[in-house]
Structures are given as structure tokens and as C-alpha cells.
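Quiz preparation item.
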């Protein structure tokens, strides 16, 4: 199975791919490509071929029943709720605009996503849902945001950082700082390796095609501070901890 995912990752990272143009100075490209494949398959509804011992794990059964989603999803609005007419960037947005109450918040939604499947779904359906609030989804990795400096009041990234080494997230923090307006807020979540579900969830994700990095919460805090960020609020969950960061 690992060989199968490696082959798909290589195709996603072909010489014609956007991701092949990422800077070669950091060894992030292979992980970005693997995460791209993993989520393209999910958004296209393609089956994952998993060993019987993985399908026997309780966490797999939770995923199959749909009950795992509530434990994985981080309620970023509980930390900072988007406000009317705010310009908000969702990094690694998936299909966020379709499932969260952006119309109720009346905030302007911009997205960036590495999954072409998720981008295409959202760019097709977002304008139908609300063409005034939906401002489109760009294709790109989190450390190279396709937006201007000082453009956003709020940036969000949930379910993203766990798939990358912590030095990668230092680059993401720098980009978030660049695109935020003075006084803007970056809300993101990190996987808490001390939670009871963390290791089994990481194993499941590995078999779904993407490695998960179990970084100590203390190291995340050091990385935020080193990037010039101030932690204004935290919110722990069953798997992830949310951070509200200001620069």
C-alpha cells in the first residue's frame, strides 16, 4: 500500500505541477504532495485500501461512522468569530464555506488549498451559495500565500499544521503575518500528542497516505514566540488545541 501512495504522490508532484516550483531549499515538497493526494482522494470519494488490522481499530470505526469528525474539527469561531465585512483567509480551507455559517457571520471568505478537488468543489459551489461573500479559493501551499500584504483581518488554518514539521509552520507563521492587517489575528490548531487519541489517529492518517507529526505543545509555543507572535488565547479539544495569535 505504501508503494501505491508513493506512486500517486510522485504523480501529484510531477514536473508540470504547481508544487514542483516550490523552493528547493527545504524538504517540504514530498510531504505537500502526499497530503495533496490524500485529500484529493477523500474529496473525490475514492476508497482507501487499508489493512484489516487498521480497519479493526476503534478509531477507524469512528471514522467510518462519521463520529470522528466532531473530534477532529476545531471550532475556530469559539476563539475568534468572523465579523461582518471582515476579510478572512482560510488556509487549507477544504470546503469550509459550504459547511460553516459564513453567511450568518456575513464575513468575506477567501481560501487557499492544495487539494485541486476541494478547490474545484468550492469554486463551483461557493458563488452559488453566496456570491457576495465568497471571494474564491487559490491553489497553493500554506507557506506561499497567493494574497497581498496587509489584506486580511483574520486568517484561519485548522487541520493543517499536523501534517508538516514544525520548521515548516514557522514559514507559514511568517506568511500569515505578512497578509494580516496590523492587529489582525491568526487562528490555527495543532495536534496535542498528549491526548489519548493522538497516536492512533496518527497511525490511521499514515495509512490514509499522509504522515502526521507529533510535536510537543511547548515546541509550538516556542515557534510562535520566535515568529514574533503573541498567544492571546488557547482552546484544547479532544485531539487538537487551538491558538489565537497576534503579531
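Solution:
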Amino acid at each position: 500500500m505504501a508503494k501505491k501512495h508513493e506512486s500517486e504522490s510522485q504523480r501529484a508532484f510531477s514536473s508540470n505541477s504547481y508544487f514542483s516550483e516550490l523552493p528547493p531549499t527545504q524538504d517540504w515538497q514530498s510531504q505537500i504532495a502526499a497530503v495533496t493526494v490524500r485529500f484529493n482522494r477523500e474529496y473525490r470519494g475514492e476508497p482507501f485500501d487499508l489493512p484489516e488490522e487498521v480497519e479493526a481499530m476503534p478509531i477507524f470505526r469512528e471514522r467510518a461512522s462519521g463520529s470522528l469528525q466532531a473530534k477532529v474539527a476545531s471550532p475556530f469561531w469559539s476563539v475568534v468569530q468572523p465579523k461582518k465585512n471582515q476579510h478572512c483567509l482560510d488556509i487549507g480551507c477544504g470546503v469550509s464555506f459550504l459547511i460553516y455559517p459564513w453567511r450568518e457571520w456575513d464575513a468575506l471568505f477567501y481560501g487557499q488549498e492544495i487539494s485541486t478537488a476541494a478547490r474545484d468543489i468550492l469554486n463551483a459551489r461557493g458563488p452559488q451559495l453566496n456570491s457576495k461573500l465568497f471571494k474564491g479559493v487559490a491553489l497553493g501551499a500554506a507557506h506561499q500565500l497567493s494574497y497581498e500584504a496587509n489584506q486580511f483581518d483574520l486568517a484561519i488554518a485548522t487541520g493543517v499544521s499536523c501534517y508538516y514539521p514544525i520548521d515548516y509552520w514557522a514559514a507559514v507563521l511568517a506568511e500569515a503575518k505578512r497578509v494580516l492587517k496590523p492587529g489582525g489575528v491568526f487562528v490555527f490548531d495543532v495536534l496535542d500528542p498528549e491526548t489519548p487519541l493522538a497516536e492512533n489517529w496518527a497511525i490511521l492518517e499514515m495509512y490514509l497516505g499522509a504522515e502526521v507529526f507529533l510535536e510537543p505543545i511547548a515546541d509550538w509555543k516556542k515557534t510562535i514566540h520566535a515568529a514574533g507572535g503573541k498567544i492571546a488565547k488557547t482552546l484544547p479539544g479532544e485531539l487538537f488545541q487551538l491558538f489565537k495569535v497576534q503579531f
